[in-house]
Design brief:
homodimer; mainly alpha; 434 Repressor (Amino-terminal Domain); 69% helix; 0% strand; DNA-binding
Amino acid sequence: MSFGRHIREARERLNAEDRAFSLRQVALRVGIEPAYLSKIERDVFQPPSEDVIVKLAAELKEDEDILLAMAGKLSTELQNVILQRPKLFGELLRQLKSAPDHAILRIAREIRDGDW
Amino acid sequence: MSFGRHIREARERLNAEDRAFSLRQVALRVGIEPAYLSKIERDVFQPPSEDVIVKLAAELKEDEDILLAMAGKLSTELQNVILQRPKLFGELLRQLKSAPDHAILRIAREIRDGDW
DNA sequence: TAGAGTGTGTAGTACTTAATACACATCATG
DNA sequence: CATGATGTGTATTAAGTACTACACACTCTA
């Protein structure tokens, strides 16, 4: 699904319960023009900047990483993690490119449990 | 070290052995204006686009990922790996953010040896 | 010592990104 | 039925990105 359609659906779900989630009010809280949000939601414009996406995610209770990914963007936070050690993470990511989800999850869990 | 200085030093090392690595000739082979490369090497201009950096890396026998990182860029190839599964890789990268190098290397090796 | 090759200065430009401003028609509600 | 709120169309723009074009001065060497 497109970024815009996803946002619109998320907002409309919230708006059904709470009138504070009209396009105009959300735009106001996020700090952008209503007309701009309108075009984003209809995919007339490209997805907005990282900043705006992050605010939208918070406002609409959506996952930031996923929203950014739908916009074809990677958070500068995660980019910087890699850019600190490009060789190391480059290798790792290429290894993991075609690994099954469960393998990646397992690794994340192992590391969280700190067994190295 | 800055991107520009690094490029200049790499090129000058090669140029000492082989006159085919003058600024002009490298620029020609990479497909950019010599004046442009001159400014890049002196950090008068920002680092060039991903495309140009990749060609420079090949030309100067430098590591692409590292050169891109020095330019503050992450290859679209690696970005896409993450964007395919943003939630999964997001979690993993945040776990690995402060992991020691050897731990990351170990994981990469384990995966290469396919033990899942 | 002429000519080829070298690096660099000044100036300008095409394209993309990320939006704003304002008017307009429709809807709903008190 | 007037008023406030809603979503949208048209037009425009400020700033950044990624360069090119061309002229110039210097150096090396055949």
